[in-house]
Every structure is written in C-alpha cells, then in structure tokens.
Automatic annotation (TrEMBL):
Domain Nematode resistance protein-like HSPRO1 N-terminal: 1-188
Pfam families: Hs1pro-1_C, Hs1pro-1_N
Hs1pro-1 C-terminal domain segment(s): 191-453
Region of interest (Disordered), ranges: 11-31
Source species of the chain: Cicer arietinum
Gene name as annotated: LOC101512092
A single GO molecular function term of this UniProt record: heme binding
GO annotation, biological process: defense response; L-tryptophan catabolic process to kynurenine
The protein's name: Hs1pro-1-like protein
InterPro entries, alphabetized: Hs1pro-1_C, HSPRO1/HSPRO2, HSPRO1_N, Trp/Indoleamine_2_3_dOase-like
SUPFAM superfamilies for this protein: Indolic compounds 2,3-dioxygenase-like
Length: 458
C-alpha cells in the first residue's frame, strides 16, 4: 500500500523557529497565565484517511465488486466459506499477477527475481489456506461441510479439477511451466494433512476428494476485475503490479476480519484451543501482508514514480495519514487485533482490579507455572494473541521502511511517515507504542526473576 502521490508539507511561515521558554519567575508563580501551546497530534488510536481518499482507493482497486464476491454465500452449510473464499480469490489474483509479470515486455525488468518473489507469495498463501482447511476438518462441528467432488463421481456437472483457474494453464506455458509446477507441488505438500485437496491440477497422489474450486472461487469473475478505471489513459506496466498487489492485500485483510470475528465467538464459548488456532492464522496473515508489501521494492523506480504522477491520487496539504490508512478495512482489522487485549481477564477468569492491583498479573503467573497442565489451551491462546501483536507491529514498521525506499525518504518525510523520529504520525506510533498486554509482560518478567533466584512457588 505504498502511497501513489502526496505533497510535501511546507512549514508555516508564522510558526516560531524555537519553542517559547519559561523563565524562573513564570515557573514559580502559580498565578501567572502560561501561553496556550498546541499539543502534538499524537493519539493512541488510529483512524482511516479522509473519506474522499478512501473512496478513490476503493474505486481504483474495484473493492465494491470484490466485496460483493467475498460476501456472497453459495454454500449455507459451509462455515468456512466466508474465510476461505477471499483467501482463494487472493491466490487466483496471484496467478494472474504471475501471468502479467511473465508477459512484461520491458527489457530492464528483473524477470528472474519477479518470478521468485511471486512464487514465494503463492506458496505462503497456500500454506495458510491449508491451515484453514486442516483446522476445519479437525473440528467435529465443521468436518465434512466443505463442498468437494470425488474423482470417481459420475456427475458430469461437478468437475473434480478446476477448468477456469489460471494455474493449470500456466503449467503448460513454456515461460511459466517451471514456476507453476513448483506451485502445484506446494499445493500437494501443504494439503497432505487435509482430507481433501484444492483441485488445481496438483498430483493428488492419495486420490483424495477435491475442493469444488471453480464453484467457490469463480476465477472468471475474479479475472474480470483485473482492469483499473484508468487503463484507458495510463500506459504504465507498473499499474498492473500495483493493482494486483493491493487486491491481494485487501482479500487477506477481509479474511482476517472474519477470523477475528470467529475468535471472539470462540472466546465467548470458552473454546480456547479453537481461538488459539485462528489467532495463529491471523498472525501468519500479517506476516504474509508484510511479504506482499515488499513487492513494491521490485518495481522500477522511474515507472512507479511516473505512475504516481499519472494517477494523480493527491492528498491535501493537511493529510498526514499514510496511504495504507486509506484501507478502511485494514484500520478496522488493526483495531480488532488491538482489542484482543480486553479479552485477557475473561480468559484468565479474573476481574480487573479497579484500584490497579496486580490481579491479572498474578493469575497469569499461576497459569504459567501451576495450572498450565490443565489450562494449556489458555496458554496457547495468550501466546497466539501476543504473536498477533508482534506480527502486526512488524507489518507497520516494514511498511514504513518500504515507503521510504520506494518513494525516497525526503518525500516520505514530507508527509511525516518517512524516517523521522518524532513519532507524530499514526504509522510511527503503531510500532512504537507499548505492549498491548502489560500484565502478561509483567508476569513473565517476575517469573524470570523467580527462576533466576531459585525461588519456590508459594
């Protein structure tokens, strides 16, 4: 989500060059009225960019059409549909992205490295999809609800392998054959622990049932959204890369939101092990988003900066929000991840001390030492929630660095989201703010002292 255009914020000529100093008499006299100084605009919360900017972002990526596909329900009895559908959409967009890169006519493009990075992104996505499928089949409440087809099925209307996905066709094209074949082998390996496979043309050596990929993903409808509203007036090959990259990111953000909603339901139902599984999946999605954003480092500097000017997606001179904050769903998912901290007392079965006492800290210490055998699922959940925090902060930090490298630190600093150290923007504040779980952090700190001093649990 690298910003496509912004203006440098010029300092106001009326602003004093130095901050006003207080004299000794001003400090000592309580009746002296101090001049009102504007407080820095630092907040503990994040918010989306201005509505017109968010609307332009949605329009460029054709998100209204994508959201319609994400939210469509074709299989009411399949609980995982709302999560797996956007994940499969992101995977199919990746196949389209690979085809675009392989068709790139620019002689100066680094085709070899492009192939490697997109293959890596596809493999990461397949790994997460396999985790979702495996967790679903291990749950007795959802086992067997996935729409699958058997190889021996005599119904001609149900195909056991996809006929509309791009991956099988890429496996036959001389330019993409080696990359596509490795991706198919990744599908075979990652789906090994699941009772069915994706049906993209992988070997399927075990002869397992295959997901009705075409009915779930509907690749033709996904590929119909490959064009941008500006294709008729922009001739820039990086336009396709930017468009595909952000569509992949938005698809996985939507899947994360559905997972976070399910995590809340699992915690309410005291299904802590299930909540931990979904938390670890969300953590991996944040890591995937970090890798997808690194794709911008491969884009040609001249072509990308030209595209930024061609699209003319300008911020106002007062707009200091980073470009990623134009994704309203990213902001919402970020808040949902941070709000997981409010579920810690419920998990530990303890009420928050209104006087600020160490109730939660003590309960966590007892769980880690005395009750971890009977309450291991709680330990797993707390670890997974802290893993989400680490992965999310790492995403925003990596995004900040990618922004400076791709745009140039000077221009990035003009919007206060570059390499400045003042921490005045929301992006910088995201990874500089203290831990979301101070009680868990304190519990581990005291446990470290406890074991270092060879104490005994009282």
């Amino acid at each position: 989500m690298v910003d496509l255009h912004w203006k440098l914020n010029m300092p106001n000529s009326d602003m004093p060059s130095k901050a006003p100093k207080l004299s000794h008499s001003e400090k000592s006299s309580p009746r002296t009225c101090l001049p009102s100084l504007p407080l820095p605009s630092i907040t503990n919360d994040i918010s989306a960019a201005a509505p017109p900017l968010c609307l332009a972002y949605d329009h460029y990526l054709r998100l209204p059409e994508l959201r319609k596909l994400w939210n469509s329900r074709e299989f009411p009895n399949w609980n995982n549909e709302s999560i797996l559908k956007p994940a499969l959409h992101a995977l199919e967009i990746t196949f389209r992205f690979l085809s675009t890169v392989l068709s790139d006519p620019r002689p100066y493009a680094n085709h070899r490295e492009w192939n490697r990075i997109i293959e890596s992104i596809a493999t990461r996505q397949i790994e997460i999809i396999a985790m979702l499928c495996e967790d679903e089949e291990n749950n007795p409440e959802t086992r067997g609800t996935t729409p699958t087809a058997y190889l021996s099925s005599g119904n001609s209307n149900i195909r056991s392998y996809s006929e509309t996905s791009l991956l099988p066709r890429l496996a036959t094209w001389y330019k993409s054959k080696d990359v596509a074949q490795r991706i198919l082998l990744s599908v075979e390996c990652q789906m090994m622990r699941c009772t069915y496979t994706l049906g993209l043309g992988e070997p399927n050596l075990a002869g397992k049932p295959t997901l009705r990929y075409d009915d779930v993903c509907k690749p033709n409808e996904i590929h119909a959204l490959k064009t941008t509203p500006y294709d008729d007036r922009i001739e820039n090959y990086e336009n396709h890369a930017v468009h595909a990259t952000h569509q992949i990111v938005e698809s996985w953000i939507h899947a994360s939101r559905k997972l976070l909603e399910r995590i809340g339901e699992s915690i309410n139902g005291r299904r802590f092990e299930k909540a931990a599984e979904d938390c670890y999946t969300v953590e991996r999605i944040w890591k995937l988003l970090t890798e997808v954003e690194d794709v911008h480092l491969m884009m040609d500097p001249g072509d990308f900066l030209k595209l930024k000017n061609q699209l003319s997606m300008k911020s106002s001179c007062y707009e200091t929000a980073s470009f990623c904050m134009r994704s309203k769903e990213l902001v919402e998912v970020t808040k949902m991840c941070r709000d997981l901290r409010h579920r810690v007392p419920e998990i530990l079965d303890v009420e928050v001390d209104p006087k600020g006492g160490p109730r939660i800290q003590e309960a966590a210490m007892k769980l880690y030492v005395m009750e971890k055998i009977s309450g291991f699922e709680k330990v797993h959940l707390l670890q997974a929630m802290q893993g989400i925090e680490v992965a999310m902060k790492r995403f925003f930090y990596a995004y900040k660095q990618v922004l400076a490298v791709v745009m140039g630190s000077s221009e990035a600093n003009g919007n206060r989201v570059g390499l400045s150290c003042d921490g005045g923007d929301s992006l910088t504040h995201m990874f500089l703010e203290p831990t979301y779980f101070p009680s868990l952090d304190a519990a581990k700190t005291f446990l470290g002292y406890f074991w270092d001093n060879d104490n005994k649990w009282v």
